[in-house]
Amino acid sequence: xxxxxxxxxxxxxxxxxxxxxxxxxxxxxxxxxxxxxxxxxxxxxxxxxxxxxxxxxxxxxxxxxxxxxxxxxxxxxxxxxxxxxxxxxxxxxxxxxxxxxxxxxxxxxxxxxxxxxxxxxxxxxxxxxxxxxxxxxxxxxxxxxxxxxxxxxxxxxxxxxxxxxxxxxxxxxxxxxxxxxxxxxxxxxxxxxxxxxxxxxxxxxxxxxxxxxxxxxxxxxxxxxxxxxxxxxxxxxxxxxxxxxxxxxxxxxxxxxxxxxxxxxxxxxxxxxxxxxxxxxxxxxxxxxxxxxxxxxxxxxxxxxxxxxxxxxxxxxxxxxxxxxxxxxxxxxxxxxxxxxxxxxxxxxxxxxxxxxxxxxxxxxxxxxxxxxxxxxxxxxxxxxxxxxxxxxxxxxxxxxxxxxxxxxxxxxxxxxxxxxxxxxxxxxxxxxxxxxxxxxxxxxxxxxxxxxxxxxxxxxxxxxxxxxxxxxxxxxxxxxxxxxxxxxxxxxxxxxxxxxxxxxxxxxxxxxxxxxxxxxxxxxxxxxxxxxxxxxxxxxxxxxxxxxxxxxxxxxxxxxxxxxxxxxxxxxxxxxxxxxxxxxxxxxxxxxxxxxxxxxxxxxxxxxxxxxxxxxxxxxxxxxxxxxxxxxxxxxxxxxxxxxxxxxxxxxxxxxxxxxxxxxxxxxxxxxxxxxxxxxxxxxxxxxxxxxxxxxxxxxxxxxxxxxxxxxxxxxxxxxxxxxxxxxxxxxxxxxxxxxxxxxxxxxxxxxxxxxxxxxxxxxxxxxxxxxxxxxxxxxxxxxxxxxxxxxxxxxxxxxxxxxxxxxxxxxxxxxxxxxxxxxxxxx
Length: 829
Ligand code: F58
Fold this sequence. Notes:
Blueprint: H1 12-15, H2 25-39, H3 49-77, E1 82-86, E2 90-91, H4 96-102, H5 106-115, H6 120-126, E3 131-132, H7 136-150, E4 155-160, E5 168-172, E6 175-179, E7 191-193, E8 199-203, E9 206-212, E10 215-221, E11 224-236, E12 243-253, H8 259-263, H9 267-278, H10 295-316, H11 326-329, E13 330-335, H12 342-353, H13 358-368, E14 369-372, E15 383-385, H14 386-392, H15 394-415, H16 419-425, E16 428-429, E17 434-436, H17 437-444, E18 448-450, H18 453-463, H19 465-470, E19 475-477, H20 484-490, H21 493-503, H22 524-549, E20 558-563, H23 572-587, E21 599-604, H24 612-630, E22 638-641, H25 648-657, E23 660-663, H26 675-681, E24 685-688, H27 694-701, E25 706-708, H28 713-722, H29 726-732, H30 734-745, H31 757-765, H32 771-790, H33 792-805, H34 811-823
Parallel strand pairs: 1-4, 1-13, 4-12, 13-14, 14-18, 18-19, 20-21, 20-23, 21-22, 23-24, 24-25
Antiparallel strand pairs: 2-3, 5-6, 7-11, 8-11, 9-10, 11-12, 15-17, 16-17
Helix pairs in contact: 2-3, 2-5, 3-6, 7-34, 12-13, 12-15, 14-15, 22-25, 22-33, 23-24, 23-30, 23-32, 29-30, 29-32
The structure holds N-[(cyclohexylcarbonyl)carbamoyl]-beta-D-glucopyranosylamine.
């Protein structure tokens, strides 16, 4: 036998990427068993569920990896413009089913596993979802990387590999308790660790100037650094052979142990440095809407963007790259303000390291970033104290000051000595001195976008009004979207089959084709089939909730669902007042229980651990639930179900079963919402305010297929300006007063009147989100819901029209809008 040739980069085998295993049932079985035997070291007969799940995940990976390597190689070789999506959060949800679907292997895998005596559903259920996000913003990032891959856009997602994602919520006596989310405990089969591609990220220290061959330059002398180790995840496009990358950074100590200290016997001190470094990517901050301004959070932000920029510049760009061409090669999309420290970091790299002059560097930077804003709440706009920023990132603070100085000069040039404007537009605000990250992003970004039409309009008119006056061409809108692969095809397979039977294939990547369903709304057989799917989804949800939490869902109830983070602006309290009103009507004898439309109310919501009012509302929902559910007078009529730990996995079960989608934020507060889109696409009707993307949903589905209530945004503003006096609304509506009195009376708290008193007095005296002002209109809209549901066939027709008319909300369309309006990158097929 000839001596084997060494396998090097020049070896013919090394030139071609690995080939995939054969896409047949036998091929899959073989690959699965190889993984089980060789990787896990166990025989099928003795394998645990975890062994089988991990071997299955490896098998799916094996099918994707050849394409992935090829796409990475091409992306490096290719000159076309790439999108770097910078996001502190990716709320991915389970991976197995998604990756099977994307690679077209679902049927093969199902049969192959069955041949091994394994039910694929038990494998699906075994996966712990990576909850690396808080809510809408993180889930949007996950939908976007799915669409980027499906549209074959050269792109990479950058983020943080939190060791603990969003906390696991449990209820004790109806109150939220947070438990750590150890999502990595079973191992994480979807990731590839790349220590060889680690980057060093530095912090603190001081800056100095030095003479660089006659040029005076600044440099940063940091005090400490950590290693950023990338973990790569495959992001397969939907059955298009494309596999993009999500690169999440994990923090490690530069020196694992301080050996000298270790040898001197102080073990704890020796590992302290390691613990300190690793803390940076330890845990996702569970804040919703109000950032806490904690140092560790700023460390996290800088950590991941510095590593990402270094990664892009050193690994993706050729060494001799002409940096003035950078804007033709890359756009960094800033998902909210969390990655905005990337702007001064890019300036530092270009000016201090690559030695470009300031103006050239700034011209490049301004073309390489774009900023998406996700809020309208002033308290949600991130600011960092100058003191903290200067301590942690002294060079970046200097750079921010210079950016601000030059920007304010431009403002002065344009508007003269308008002190009000100069003060209000300054990136640095005084008392206490702090950096307004949204302003920095707006000044630096080529484009600034809101996430729904109304939101973008309000950004321009209110939050960033002065900036809009100065540079209107920067502002644009990209209405959010959701991926139909996960939220229709995977979450609602029966509806997907029904649609495919009607329209043929292709709609999953061309969601506007759902329009063709409009005529089917007039077809009685189709309506019956559609209603059958909804009923089946309710039964499936019933099974899940019974097994998970012991809740039963009745088939014949209207399923009324409010799932989203718990926040006052989202107004879960309005929903509670509705339930309490219905309850009060019956127990007071004014309405016979038999006259109520049977309804099951489902809540899902996590509250930020430090948000006392939100946690109290959770307690109240559970308390109202236990009273209503155990009152024989309401038996079979009203039921309140609040499964703990609402997450992507549960969303995939709840949304397809829903009849009514609650989108009831105060107008002008919800930037967009994306749950609203998922419900409509799954045939739930919306009861909602004219807020966020609800406005666009209503325009598309039509007033007859949407239950609108409440003040519009201008009406909200007007009432607020006039002076909002909640007591007047309570005076004007007997039922509202009764509902509030019932809560105050202690019936929901075992007679203790103090438990929920803070909620009631907040609503009556202090409520920025004007719950009481919209109560009467909300109750009236709920009555329209009951009346509409009484004609079940007409309801189903409306539900079908909701599906047919909301194809616009595919995240594929959002990504196309980003391409056209912001990125100007091209899909590469
Ligand atoms: C959400 N923001 C918006 N922030 O509230 C929602 O209207 C929108 O649809 C969605 O973004 C996507 O655009 C949101 O989820 C957060 O979770 C932040 C996490 C970090 C701390 C501050 C809130």
